[in-house]
Design goal:
heterodimer, A: alpha/beta, two-stranded antiparallel sheet, 18 helices, 11 strands, 46% helix, 11% strand, B: 430 residues, alpha+beta, 27 strands
Amino acid sequence: MAVKGNKKKETSAKDFKAVLWASADKLRSQMDAAEYKHLVLGLIFLKYISDTFIEQQNNVLKMVSDPDSDYYLGENSSDHQEALEDRDYYTQENVFWVPVEARWESLRNQAKQANIGQLIDKALVVIENENSTLRGKLDKRFGAAQLEPGRMGELVDLISTIGFGEGGNSADVLGEVYEYFLGQFASKEGKKGGQFYTPAHVVKTLVAVLSPHKGRVYDPCCGSGGMFVQSERFVESHGGRRDDISIYGQESNPTTWRLAAMNLAIRGFAADLGPEPRDTFAKDHHSDLKFDYILANPPFNISDWGGEKYESNPRWVFGIPPVGNANFAWLQHILWKLRPGGQAGVVLANGSLSSNTNGEGKIREEMVRKDVVEVIVSLPGNLFLNTPVPACLWFFTQDKTQRGRDRRGETLFIDACQMGKMVNRKERVLTAEDISKIAETVHSWRNENEYDDVAGFCHNSKFEEIEKNNFVLTPGRYVGAVEEEKDSELFDDKMKRLTSLLKEQQEKGMKLDQQIAENLERIGYGF
Amino acid sequence: MVFEWRDFRLGDLTTWSSGTTPSKQNPSFWGGDIPWISGTVMRSKNLCESELYLTQEGLDNKGKLCKKNSVLLLVRGDLFNRIPISIATKSLSFNQDIKAINSVSDDLLQHYIYYLLEGNKKRLSNIVEFTGLGAGKLDTKLLQDLTFKIPSIDYQESLINFFTSIDSKIELINKNSETLEALAKTLFKSWFIDFDPVRAKSQGCSTGLPNGINELFPDSFEESEFGDIPTGWKLGNLDQIALNPRETAKPFQMDSSYRYIGLEHMPRESIALSDSGTAENLASNKNVFKKGDILFGKLRPYFKKTGCAQFDGVCSTDIVVVREKFKLCRGFICFLLASNTFIDFTVALSSGTRMPRTSWNQMCEFLLPIPQLPLVQIFGEVVSPILDKIRINSDQSISLSSVRNTLLPKLISGELRIPDAEKMLEEVGI
């Protein structure tokens, strides 16, 4: 019964997000989605910090006016009001300080004014000035936005409806909406959307296999921070606490870097995304750190990554990556940043599994020889908005004796090409069942409990077998063919159906032949 | 197994060679009479024609010929959707994405290679790899390393005969449709474009037609801006006998129970419409059609995509739906829209250079002498069983193909014996 109720709530939440999205999209009219994204997400963020502030204010008021509370300040309401302005009450709860003029309510009251854009920019400036952690991370582009007149005000009104009347958890709702909108904008932007957003189901697959629960989590090309959100979610859903993991990221695109900062702030995660947006190869913001978990979806096959500048870099333990393709530079950077015993999961173009150009094959061979490749999963096509090219997941570890049995010299191959379902003509999604099937396969293989090779799906390979295949890591080569349908009953049924259909068609055909002959005779062309 | 099947590595029994592409920049290499095969034309079992032909000079310049009866296998291209395998029924040239495979062993009949690969498509699709460009490739070494259980030469022979009989039957059915279509088109042209019966009557000759039909034709011509036309036939256009319903369905109004016809489902130069998809996940508006409507592909009309709908459904907005205004006009409309005269007219008018399209309005600018309704209806009556038979034929070739594809893996692996399979087919007299 309880479960049923839960489900209902879930769908209504989804509907509400969809309705909200439709309304927001309507207001966009002619504006480019890529530009519009920053306005909408910026407003959601603004509402979020304002709401959490007000919520904390109410808590403080409750505390200071409650005779049973340690914070009780007596009955004088002017004392109460004074307390409400005391910042310590907020900072100790990780709540951003929002000055009066920047609070949502005051903006909303001015939503109909022509200069609302400028007012919002001003509000963002004061928020940044009051909260050092947000400095430089809020996009102040509302005044200059090319929205049709009055639209900005309508947008403010629309965002006002989020979290309203949700009974104190408006922050969670706003966080969800933020994430949902990120995904929707990524779809809208299509090709470009993939640059800042990895579909949630792909991230969940990485997270489910890695199961991060404690330590440092890192993403060297973090986009809008989806990897972190799902990692935290995983920790919490497995009974852990938010601060069991600490988050480190880097992102080179300035606007994306800001999206990530807001995305994490809105979730209440403390994260270190470095002092500014920077290219990871040019400057590693976390050069003194190694990590327990690394999750990444680097841009595929980047040809202008500046490889010629880094040829002597100590990171290239397995061989110098080609100047014309950054895939193996990313993989090696990630391996370089792993702590002994740490694990990494990387989404990459399928070509990385079999390419032999410019020494990539050699690097891959070296990775297998040094035994750092733990699991390879090939994914179905159409998972990504920006490319129909199928991708794969690489899982690394430098110590195959931990987290299960001794697996040295072994690699697990999973072929998930047939998984997922199309949600529209362009997008395929891995279902919750698909994800848990992949994760459970990996976990049972690690622990040797009831793991068996399944033809066409998974296969445990020894080093010699990979060597025999010239270090090509395409799972299809190892997992073999799908077991043929052994069910003769099925085959019989099919044959019976087909043969009776044929019989029927032939009879009809004969009747028609006769009719045709008669008709031809009628016009003087009898056979 | 009652008889001996032995394991063989494919590469041990066969030789493999790749084709080439002589320079496309050099016009003197192309336009000859040596078919040059690429993946796009590998759409049938037997290949002896192509869309591109090499000259002898082109062949001498890096071209490559395969032997007659070579089995051709596409090893690079869109292999995720289909893996084309064909037999070269004569010596022809082919490109570098194709391997020509020939038996060099007394243990393997040449023709058997074709059915061996066809019957093991699942295994082939399991080793398709991705190239960087989203295309697939089949690694030659992996292919040659495949081992197969192969029966005695005698049994190979029987298997080849067994499947060839089904394949020939499919071919025969398709030929039958082609014949019927050509026949109806000929009749249409004779009656309504060349006016043969009218001409015969005006010269006092017999039309060879029975009275009931004969008297529907006038016996003289009258002048028109179009030259001479049969007396009493009015110059008019399509919308006197047909209409364009213009009923659209929005994406959320359609579900998987709707059948969908896109341009990709319509064959070129054939009125058979048997293929269709489902309307699930359609993201844009579609045209609604009813059983019996004529569908006309308006994008690049020179592809000659005209067909007669056999069910209710929705179609691409690049397909014009044409409906008869009076009963029994369907046949006339169908063969008018499929006639070269009409197609040439729409091609000349269609707008856009890269993706020319015509429209219902343009189609209605085509002027033709329209006979009185009874004659139009008589024609419709005569060709109606032809349309039906063509449809039954395409349904039948689909069912035969499914029978073949269901039996192939079972028989090629030895799981099912020929006598059992023959019995199944005998029951329905194939």
